[in-house]
Specification:
Strand order of the largest sheet: 2-4-5-7-6
Radius of gyration: 38 Å
Number of helices: 14
Number of strands: 7
Helix content: 55-70%
Distance between the termini: 65 Å
Order of helices and strands: HHHHHHHHHEHHEEHEEHHEE
Protein backbone atom coordinates (compact mmCIF):
# COMPACT_ATOMS: atom_id res chain seq x y z
CA UNK A 1 0.00 0.00 0.00
CA UNK A 2 1.67 3.27 -1.08
CA UNK A 3 2.34 5.81 1.60
CA UNK A 4 1.92 9.47 0.70
CA UNK A 5 4.98 11.60 1.42
CA UNK A 6 4.81 13.92 4.36
CA UNK A 7 5.15 17.63 3.83
CA UNK A 8 8.22 18.98 5.65
CA UNK A 9 6.26 21.98 6.80
CA UNK A 10 3.66 19.76 8.47
CA UNK A 11 6.32 17.83 10.34
CA UNK A 12 7.87 21.00 11.77
CA UNK A 13 4.77 22.92 12.81
CA UNK A 14 1.08 22.14 12.94
CA UNK A 15 -1.42 24.85 12.24
CA UNK A 16 -3.89 25.16 15.07
CA UNK A 17 -7.31 23.77 14.32
CA UNK A 18 -10.69 24.94 15.62
CA UNK A 19 -10.26 23.04 18.91
CA UNK A 20 -6.94 24.84 19.56
CA UNK A 21 -8.64 28.27 19.42
CA UNK A 22 -10.47 29.52 22.55
CA UNK A 23 -14.24 29.69 22.35
CA UNK A 24 -14.39 33.47 22.74
CA UNK A 25 -12.00 33.80 19.77
CA UNK A 26 -14.17 31.49 17.66
CA UNK A 27 -17.12 33.84 18.35
CA UNK A 28 -15.24 36.81 16.87
CA UNK A 29 -16.87 36.31 13.46
CA UNK A 30 -20.39 36.50 14.88
CA UNK A 31 -19.50 39.57 16.95
CA UNK A 32 -18.07 41.28 13.86
CA UNK A 33 -21.28 40.51 11.97
CA UNK A 34 -23.44 41.97 14.74
CA UNK A 35 -21.22 45.05 14.89
CA UNK A 36 -21.49 45.46 11.10
CA UNK A 37 -25.29 45.36 11.32
CA UNK A 38 -25.22 48.04 14.02
CA UNK A 39 -22.90 50.15 11.84
CA UNK A 40 -25.43 49.98 8.97
CA UNK A 41 -28.14 51.21 11.35
CA UNK A 42 -25.93 54.10 12.50
CA UNK A 43 -25.17 55.03 8.87
CA UNK A 44 -28.89 55.06 8.03
CA UNK A 45 -29.68 57.16 11.11
CA UNK A 46 -26.87 59.57 10.27
CA UNK A 47 -28.09 60.06 6.70
CA UNK A 48 -31.80 60.13 7.44
CA UNK A 49 -31.50 62.09 10.68
CA UNK A 50 -29.38 64.82 9.10
CA UNK A 51 -31.98 65.55 6.43
CA UNK A 52 -34.89 65.34 8.89
CA UNK A 53 -33.12 67.79 11.21
CA UNK A 54 -32.35 70.08 8.28
CA UNK A 55 -36.03 70.09 7.30
CA UNK A 56 -37.21 70.71 10.86
CA UNK A 57 -34.62 73.27 11.96
CA UNK A 58 -33.82 74.97 8.67
CA UNK A 59 -31.01 74.80 6.09
CA UNK A 60 -28.62 76.59 8.42
CA UNK A 61 -29.08 74.06 11.22
CA UNK A 62 -26.40 71.57 10.03
CA UNK A 63 -24.48 70.41 6.96
CA UNK A 64 -26.63 67.48 5.84
CA UNK A 65 -24.52 66.85 2.72
CA UNK A 66 -21.33 66.40 4.75
CA UNK A 67 -23.04 64.06 7.22
CA UNK A 68 -24.56 62.10 4.34
CA UNK A 69 -21.11 61.71 2.79
CA UNK A 70 -19.71 60.44 6.11
CA UNK A 71 -22.62 58.01 6.44
CA UNK A 72 -22.09 56.67 2.90
CA UNK A 73 -18.35 56.24 3.52
CA UNK A 74 -19.07 54.32 6.75
CA UNK A 75 -21.62 52.14 4.93
CA UNK A 76 -19.12 51.49 2.11
CA UNK A 77 -16.23 50.28 4.27
CA UNK A 78 -18.70 48.42 6.45
CA UNK A 79 -19.98 46.56 3.40
CA UNK A 80 -16.39 45.62 2.50
CA UNK A 81 -15.71 44.38 6.02
CA UNK A 82 -18.94 42.36 6.01
CA UNK A 83 -17.88 40.63 2.79
CA UNK A 84 -14.37 39.96 4.07
CA UNK A 85 -15.76 38.60 7.36
CA UNK A 86 -17.55 35.84 5.42
CA UNK A 87 -14.50 34.87 3.35
CA UNK A 88 -12.53 33.09 6.15
CA UNK A 89 -15.01 30.19 6.03
CA UNK A 90 -13.00 29.00 3.03
CA UNK A 91 -9.71 29.01 5.00
CA UNK A 92 -8.27 27.19 7.99
CA UNK A 93 -9.20 28.29 11.51
CA UNK A 94 -5.90 30.00 12.36
CA UNK A 95 -5.86 32.11 9.20
CA UNK A 96 -9.54 33.01 9.57
CA UNK A 97 -8.91 34.15 13.14
CA UNK A 98 -6.01 36.38 12.14
CA UNK A 99 -8.02 37.95 9.31
CA UNK A 100 -10.95 38.67 11.59
CA UNK A 101 -8.66 40.23 14.18
CA UNK A 102 -7.24 42.52 11.50
CA UNK A 103 -10.76 43.39 10.33
CA UNK A 104 -11.83 44.27 13.86
CA UNK A 105 -8.78 46.49 14.46
CA UNK A 106 -9.20 48.33 11.14
CA UNK A 107 -12.95 48.81 11.52
CA UNK A 108 -12.59 50.23 15.04
CA UNK A 109 -9.86 52.64 13.90
CA UNK A 110 -11.97 53.88 10.95
CA UNK A 111 -14.95 54.26 13.27
CA UNK A 112 -12.96 56.58 15.51
CA UNK A 113 -11.88 58.70 12.53
CA UNK A 114 -15.46 58.86 11.22
CA UNK A 115 -16.75 59.77 14.69
CA UNK A 116 -14.17 62.56 15.07
CA UNK A 117 -15.18 64.12 11.74
CA UNK A 118 -18.88 63.78 12.60
CA UNK A 119 -18.36 65.40 16.01
CA UNK A 120 -16.54 68.30 14.36
CA UNK A 121 -19.52 68.94 12.02
CA UNK A 122 -21.92 68.72 14.99
CA UNK A 123 -20.40 71.26 17.36
CA UNK A 124 -16.87 70.08 18.10
CA UNK A 125 -15.84 70.07 21.73
CA UNK A 126 -19.29 71.31 22.80
CA UNK A 127 -21.14 68.49 21.04
CA UNK A 128 -23.03 65.97 23.21
CA UNK A 129 -21.90 63.31 20.75
CA UNK A 130 -18.53 63.22 22.55
CA UNK A 131 -20.06 60.54 24.78
CA UNK A 132 -20.08 58.18 21.78
CA UNK A 133 -16.29 57.91 22.20
CA UNK A 134 -17.04 55.99 25.40
CA UNK A 135 -19.42 53.71 23.50
CA UNK A 136 -16.80 52.92 20.85
CA UNK A 137 -14.14 52.22 23.47
CA UNK A 138 -16.55 49.70 25.01
CA UNK A 139 -17.05 48.07 21.60
CA UNK A 140 -13.29 47.90 21.05
CA UNK A 141 -12.80 46.28 24.46
CA UNK A 142 -15.33 43.58 23.56
CA UNK A 143 -14.10 42.87 20.04
CA UNK A 144 -10.34 43.23 20.40
CA UNK A 145 -7.63 41.53 22.47
CA UNK A 146 -6.37 43.62 25.43
CA UNK A 147 -3.33 45.06 23.63
CA UNK A 148 -5.34 46.11 20.57
CA UNK A 149 -8.07 47.57 22.80
CA UNK A 150 -5.46 49.70 24.60
CA UNK A 151 -4.07 50.93 21.27
CA UNK A 152 -7.59 51.80 20.09
CA UNK A 153 -8.20 53.76 23.28
CA UNK A 154 -4.94 55.67 22.75
CA UNK A 155 -6.03 56.45 19.16
CA UNK A 156 -9.39 57.76 20.42
CA UNK A 157 -7.66 59.92 23.03
CA UNK A 158 -5.28 61.38 20.42
CA UNK A 159 -8.13 62.17 17.99
CA UNK A 160 -10.27 63.78 20.69
CA UNK A 161 -7.34 65.81 22.04
CA UNK A 162 -6.42 67.00 18.55
CA UNK A 163 -10.04 68.05 17.93
CA UNK A 164 -10.17 70.09 21.12
CA UNK A 165 -6.71 71.65 20.66
CA UNK A 166 -7.43 72.68 17.06
CA UNK A 167 -10.71 74.24 18.13
CA UNK A 168 -9.17 75.96 21.15
CA UNK A 169 -6.35 77.49 19.09
CA UNK A 170 -8.72 78.59 16.32
CA UNK A 171 -7.01 76.55 13.63
CA UNK A 172 -10.28 74.70 12.87
CA UNK A 173 -13.51 76.29 14.06
CA UNK A 174 -16.33 73.73 13.87
CA UNK A 175 -19.86 74.65 12.76
CA UNK A 176 -22.35 75.25 15.55
CA UNK A 177 -25.59 73.61 14.41
CA UNK A 178 -28.79 74.60 16.13
CA UNK A 179 -29.56 72.08 18.88
CA UNK A 180 -25.93 71.01 19.40
CA UNK A 181 -24.81 73.92 21.61
CA UNK A 182 -26.45 74.21 25.04
CA UNK A 183 -25.88 77.99 25.01
CA UNK A 184 -26.77 80.19 27.99
CA UNK A 185 -29.99 80.12 29.98
CA UNK A 186 -32.61 77.36 29.72
CA UNK A 187 -31.70 74.35 27.58
CA UNK A 188 -32.95 74.46 24.02
CA UNK A 189 -35.42 71.69 23.13
CA UNK A 190 -33.24 70.49 20.24
CA UNK A 191 -30.23 70.10 22.53
CA UNK A 192 -32.31 68.16 25.05
CA UNK A 193 -33.53 65.76 22.35
CA UNK A 194 -29.99 65.16 21.07
CA UNK A 195 -28.59 64.54 24.56
CA UNK A 196 -31.40 62.13 25.46
CA UNK A 197 -31.05 60.19 22.20
CA UNK A 198 -27.28 59.88 22.57
CA UNK A 199 -27.21 58.83 26.20
CA UNK A 200 -30.26 56.58 26.10
CA UNK A 201 -28.75 54.81 23.10
CA UNK A 202 -25.49 54.32 24.99
CA UNK A 203 -27.37 53.01 28.04
CA UNK A 204 -29.28 50.50 25.89
CA UNK A 205 -26.11 49.30 24.17
CA UNK A 206 -24.20 48.83 27.41
CA UNK A 207 -27.13 47.01 29.00
CA UNK A 208 -27.51 44.68 26.02
CA UNK A 209 -23.81 43.87 25.64
CA UNK A 210 -23.10 43.43 29.33
CA UNK A 211 -26.20 41.28 29.81
CA UNK A 212 -25.13 39.07 26.91
CA UNK A 213 -21.60 38.87 28.30
CA UNK A 214 -22.86 37.93 31.76
CA UNK A 215 -25.15 35.26 30.28
CA UNK A 216 -22.25 33.85 28.27
CA UNK A 217 -20.11 33.69 31.40
CA UNK A 218 -22.90 31.97 33.33
CA UNK A 219 -23.30 29.35 30.61
CA UNK A 220 -19.53 28.83 30.47
CA UNK A 221 -19.43 28.42 34.25
CA UNK A 222 -22.24 25.86 34.20
CA UNK A 223 -20.54 23.97 31.37
CA UNK A 224 -17.20 24.02 33.20
CA UNK A 225 -18.86 22.72 36.36
CA UNK A 226 -20.58 19.94 34.41
CA UNK A 227 -17.30 18.97 32.72
CA UNK A 228 -15.52 18.99 36.08
CA UNK A 229 -18.07 16.52 37.48
CA UNK A 230 -17.67 14.33 34.41
CA UNK A 231 -13.88 14.38 34.67
CA UNK A 232 -14.07 13.57 38.38
CA UNK A 233 -16.34 10.61 37.66
CA UNK A 234 -14.01 9.37 34.91
CA UNK A 235 -11.00 9.82 37.17
CA UNK A 236 -12.71 7.86 39.94
CA UNK A 237 -13.57 5.07 37.49
CA UNK A 238 -9.97 5.01 36.26
CA UNK A 239 -8.61 4.79 39.81
CA UNK A 240 -11.03 2.01 40.74
CA UNK A 241 -10.19 0.06 37.59
CA UNK A 242 -6.46 0.49 38.16
CA UNK A 243 -6.78 -0.67 41.75
CA UNK A 244 -8.73 -3.81 40.79
CA UNK A 245 -6.50 -4.57 37.79
CA UNK A 246 -3.28 -4.21 39.75
CA UNK A 247 -4.64 -6.37 42.55
CA UNK A 248 -5.68 -9.07 40.07
CA UNK A 249 -2.30 -8.95 38.32
CA UNK A 250 -0.07 -8.86 41.40
CA UNK A 251 -1.22 -12.17 42.87
CA UNK A 252 -0.72 -14.45 39.83
CA UNK A 253 2.54 -12.64 39.03
CA UNK A 254 3.92 -13.44 42.49
CA UNK A 255 2.86 -17.07 42.02
CA UNK A 256 4.51 -17.25 38.59
CA UNK A 257 7.71 -15.76 39.99
CA UNK A 258 7.74 -18.29 42.82
CA UNK A 259 7.23 -21.23 40.43
CA UNK A 260 9.96 -19.97 38.09
CA UNK A 261 12.34 -19.65 41.02
CA UNK A 262 11.52 -23.22 42.14
CA UNK A 263 12.36 -24.45 38.65
CA UNK A 264 15.54 -22.39 38.53
CA UNK A 265 16.66 -23.76 41.91
CA UNK A 266 16.08 -27.27 40.49
CA UNK A 267 13.48 -28.20 43.08
CA UNK A 268 11.69 -30.14 40.35
CA UNK A 269 14.78 -31.83 38.95
CA UNK A 270 18.07 -30.91 37.31
CA UNK A 271 18.16 -28.46 34.38
CA UNK A 272 20.38 -28.14 31.37
CA UNK A 273 22.42 -24.91 31.09
CA UNK A 274 20.31 -23.59 28.23
CA UNK A 275 17.10 -24.30 30.15
CA UNK A 276 18.50 -22.48 33.17
CA UNK A 277 19.46 -19.51 31.01
CA UNK A 278 15.93 -19.27 29.62
CA UNK A 279 14.49 -19.42 33.15
CA UNK A 280 16.78 -16.61 34.26
CA UNK A 281 15.57 -14.43 31.39
CA UNK A 282 11.95 -15.21 32.25
CA UNK A 283 12.54 -14.42 35.92
CA UNK A 284 14.19 -11.13 34.91
CA UNK A 285 11.12 -10.13 32.86
CA UNK A 286 8.69 -11.12 35.61
CA UNK A 287 10.71 -9.14 38.16
CA UNK A 288 10.47 -6.10 35.89
CA UNK A 289 6.70 -6.49 35.69
CA UNK A 290 6.51 -6.87 39.47
CA UNK A 291 8.40 -3.59 39.90
CA UNK A 292 6.05 -1.88 37.45
CA UNK A 293 2.96 -3.13 39.31
CA UNK A 294 4.42 -1.94 42.62
CA UNK A 295 5.21 1.49 41.15
CA UNK A 296 1.69 1.83 39.75
CA UNK A 297 0.22 0.83 43.10
CA UNK A 298 2.19 3.60 44.81
CA UNK A 299 1.05 6.14 42.21
CA UNK A 300 -2.56 5.07 42.75
CA UNK A 301 -2.16 5.39 46.49
CA UNK A 302 -0.78 8.92 46.13
CA UNK A 303 -3.89 9.89 44.15
CA UNK A 304 -6.47 8.35 46.46
CA UNK A 305 -5.04 8.59 49.97
CA UNK A 306 -5.20 11.59 52.27
CA UNK A 307 -1.63 11.50 53.56
CA UNK A 308 -2.43 13.62 56.62
CA UNK A 309 -4.58 10.83 58.03
CA UNK A 310 -1.62 8.41 57.88
CA UNK A 311 1.23 10.71 58.86
CA UNK A 312 3.20 10.50 62.08
CA UNK A 313 6.44 11.90 63.50
CA UNK A 314 9.38 10.00 62.01
CA UNK A 315 13.11 10.08 62.91
CA UNK A 316 14.91 10.24 59.56
CA UNK A 317 18.07 8.63 60.92
CA UNK A 318 16.15 5.54 62.03
CA UNK A 319 14.37 5.31 58.66
CA UNK A 320 17.65 5.62 56.75
CA UNK A 321 19.38 3.00 58.93
CA UNK A 322 16.54 0.56 58.35
CA UNK A 323 16.76 1.01 54.56
CA UNK A 324 20.55 0.61 54.52
CA UNK A 325 20.30 -2.56 56.62
CA UNK A 326 17.74 -4.00 54.20
CA UNK A 327 20.18 -3.51 51.30
CA UNK A 328 23.28 -4.85 53.04
CA UNK A 329 23.11 -8.26 51.36
CA UNK A 330 22.57 -6.78 47.88
CA UNK A 331 25.56 -4.45 48.38
CA UNK A 332 27.72 -7.28 49.67
CA UNK A 333 26.88 -9.38 46.61
CA UNK A 334 28.33 -6.62 44.39
CA UNK A 335 31.32 -6.02 46.68
CA UNK A 336 30.04 -2.53 47.59
CA UNK A 337 30.62 -0.70 50.86
CA UNK A 338 27.55 0.80 52.58
CA UNK A 339 28.04 3.38 55.32
CA UNK A 340 26.02 6.00 57.18
CA UNK A 341 27.73 9.16 58.34
CA UNK A 342 26.88 10.00 61.97
CA UNK A 343 24.70 13.03 62.55
CA UNK A 344 24.55 15.35 65.52
CA UNK A 345 20.99 16.44 64.74
CA UNK A 346 17.77 14.75 65.79
CA UNK A 347 15.98 15.00 62.45
CA UNK A 348 12.26 14.56 63.01
CA UNK A 349 9.80 14.95 60.12
CA UNK A 350 6.05 14.44 59.73
CA UNK A 351 4.90 11.98 57.09
CA UNK A 352 3.84 8.50 56.03
CA UNK A 353 6.65 6.10 57.08
CA UNK A 354 6.08 3.54 54.33
CA UNK A 355 6.11 6.15 51.54
CA UNK A 356 9.19 7.93 52.84
CA UNK A 357 10.90 4.56 53.23
CA UNK A 358 9.98 3.81 49.60
CA UNK A 359 11.72 7.03 48.53
CA UNK A 360 14.92 6.20 50.42
CA UNK A 361 14.76 2.61 49.16
CA UNK A 362 14.65 3.87 45.59
CA UNK A 363 17.74 6.04 46.13
CA UNK A 364 19.77 3.26 47.76
CA UNK A 365 18.57 0.64 45.29
CA UNK A 366 19.61 2.84 42.33
CA UNK A 367 22.99 3.53 43.93
CA UNK A 368 23.63 -0.23 44.19
CA UNK A 369 22.47 -0.85 40.61
CA UNK A 370 24.61 1.85 39.01
CA UNK A 371 27.79 1.57 41.10
CA UNK A 372 30.48 -0.81 39.76
CA UNK A 373 31.91 -3.51 42.02
CA UNK A 374 34.28 -2.23 44.68
CA UNK A 375 32.49 1.11 44.98
CA UNK A 376 31.17 2.95 48.00
CA UNK A 377 27.68 4.21 48.90
CA UNK A 378 27.39 6.78 51.68
CA UNK A 379 24.20 8.13 53.23
CA UNK A 380 23.79 11.02 55.64
CA UNK A 381 21.18 13.16 57.38
CA UNK A 382 21.91 16.86 57.81
CA UNK A 383 20.13 20.22 58.04
CA UNK A 384 18.57 21.30 54.76
CA UNK A 385 19.45 24.38 52.76
CA UNK A 386 15.99 25.83 53.36
CA UNK A 387 15.15 26.97 56.90
CA UNK A 388 13.55 24.42 59.25
CA UNK A 389 14.21 21.47 56.94
CA UNK A 390 16.25 18.27 57.03
CA UNK A 391 18.02 16.68 54.10
CA UNK A 392 18.87 13.03 53.37
CA UNK A 393 21.68 12.44 50.87
CA UNK A 394 22.68 9.17 49.21
CA UNK A 395 26.08 9.40 47.49
CA UNK A 396 27.75 6.78 45.31
CA UNK A 397 30.90 6.29 43.25
CA UNK A 398 28.91 5.10 40.24
CA UNK A 399 28.79 6.01 36.56
CA UNK A 400 27.46 9.54 37.11
CA UNK A 401 24.93 11.52 35.07
CA UNK A 402 25.49 14.20 32.44
CA UNK A 403 24.13 17.73 33.18
CA UNK A 404 21.61 17.59 30.31
CA UNK A 405 20.23 14.27 31.56
CA UNK A 406 19.87 15.50 35.13
CA UNK A 407 17.01 17.83 34.13
CA UNK A 408 14.91 14.82 33.03
CA UNK A 409 15.73 12.40 35.82
CA UNK A 410 12.59 12.92 37.91
CA UNK A 411 10.16 12.69 34.98
CA UNK A 412 7.94 9.69 34.30
CA UNK A 413 9.35 6.76 32.30
CA UNK A 414 12.83 8.25 32.08
CA UNK A 415 15.81 5.89 31.97
CA UNK A 416 19.17 7.39 31.07
CA UNK A 417 22.62 6.14 30.20
CA UNK A 418 21.49 2.84 28.71
CA UNK A 419 24.57 2.71 26.51
CA UNK A 420 26.95 2.62 29.48
CA UNK A 421 28.36 -0.87 30.18
CA UNK A 422 27.53 -0.57 33.88
CA UNK A 423 23.89 0.30 33.10
CA UNK A 424 23.20 -2.23 30.37
CA UNK A 425 20.77 -4.89 31.54
CA UNK A 426 19.81 -3.09 34.76
CA UNK A 427 16.06 -3.69 35.33
CA UNK A 428 13.71 -0.78 35.90
CA UNK A 429 10.49 0.89 34.76
CA UNK A 430 11.60 4.52 34.59
CA UNK A 431 8.98 5.43 37.20
CA UNK A 432 11.06 5.18 40.38
CA UNK A 433 12.48 8.69 40.60
CA UNK A 434 9.22 10.28 39.45
CA UNK A 435 7.50 8.44 42.31
CA UNK A 436 10.12 9.74 44.74
CA UNK A 437 9.45 13.27 43.52
CA UNK A 438 5.70 12.91 43.92
CA UNK A 439 6.02 11.37 47.38
CA UNK A 440 8.34 14.09 48.65
CA UNK A 441 6.34 16.91 47.06
CA UNK A 442 3.18 15.52 48.66
CA UNK A 443 5.05 15.93 51.96
CA UNK A 444 5.84 19.59 51.09
CA UNK A 445 9.46 18.70 50.32
CA UNK A 446 11.72 18.73 47.29
CA UNK A 447 14.24 16.45 45.55
CA UNK A 448 17.40 16.88 43.52
CA UNK A 449 20.68 15.44 42.31
CA UNK A 450 24.29 16.51 41.96
CA UNK A 451 26.42 14.42 39.62
CA UNK A 452 29.27 14.32 37.14
CA UNK A 453 29.87 11.59 34.56
CA UNK A 454 32.39 9.11 35.90
CA UNK A 455 32.50 10.71 39.36
CA UNK A 456 29.35 9.35 40.96
CA UNK A 457 26.11 10.99 42.06
CA UNK A 458 24.46 12.40 45.16
CA UNK A 459 20.68 12.13 45.26
CA UNK A 460 18.96 14.14 47.97
CA UNK A 461 15.53 14.82 49.37
CA UNK A 462 14.55 17.62 51.71
CA UNK A 463 11.57 17.60 54.10
CA UNK A 464 10.16 20.16 56.55
CA UNK A 465 11.22 19.66 60.15
CA UNK A 466 8.52 18.40 62.46
CA UNK A 467 7.16 21.26 64.60
CA UNK A 468 4.82 19.17 66.73
CA UNK A 469 1.79 21.17 65.44
CA UNK A 470 0.88 19.02 62.42
Amino acid sequence: MPVSPKHPEASQARSPGPKDIPAYERLLGSRLFANAMARFVVSALMIGGSWIARSALGPESLDARALTTIGLVVAAYNLAFLWLNGRPREWDAARALEIRRSLARTAIALDFFALTITVWFLGGARSPLLAIYVLHIGIASILLPPRSAVLSTILAALLLTSLIVLEMTGVLVPPSPRGMDPGAGPLAPGFVVVVLCVYLGIFAFIMATQTQLAETLRRAEMLAEKRAHQYEALSRMRRDFLHVALHDVASPMATAELLLRNLHDELCGPLEPRQKEQLQRAMHRVAGMRHLVRDLQILGELETTDLRDHSIEIPLAFLLTSVMDDHADAARAKDLTLEIEPSEHVAMVFGVPRLLQESLTNYVDNAIKYTPAGGRITARVRPGESPATFRVEVSDTGVGISPEDQTRLFSEFTRLGRGHPAVKGVPGTGLGLSIVRRIIESHAGRVGVASEPGKGSTFWLELPACTGKE
